[in-house]
Amino acid sequence: MPVQVLGVGWEFPVALKDERIRVARYEACVRQSIFLILSTAKGERVMRPDFGCGLHDLVFSVNGPSTQGMAEFHVREALEKWEPRIDVMRVQASGAGGYGEQLLIEIDYRVRLTDNRFNLVYPFYLDRPLT
């Protein structure tokens, strides 16, 4: 069964079910891997400082076209480097929230092994500096 190549791993965030660690299988494992990559800031992991996404460098940026473009760049770069099981089809960031403190990053991707296409939305929160 070739879909097993997609993997099985601990669910993210880690949780228990019947006193056992819950697992994500196959395409769900890929999806959770994407969230893990995007949720990890570069330099956060001591033994692998280059792992993660540069998105977190934008946390104090103004929510505008340039920040949205940089977010798209960082997300695409991280996924192309750290998730070899997918092809990134499209990344689009847009502002959300009443005060512009949130970016919604839409990601369309294709799982290479199964040729199934998926879409997910990753919310990223900007923290406006006090003025």
From TrEMBL:
IraD/Gp25-like domain ranges (all copies): 25-115
Stated name of the protein: GPW/gp25 family protein
Protein source organism: Paraburkholderia ribeironis
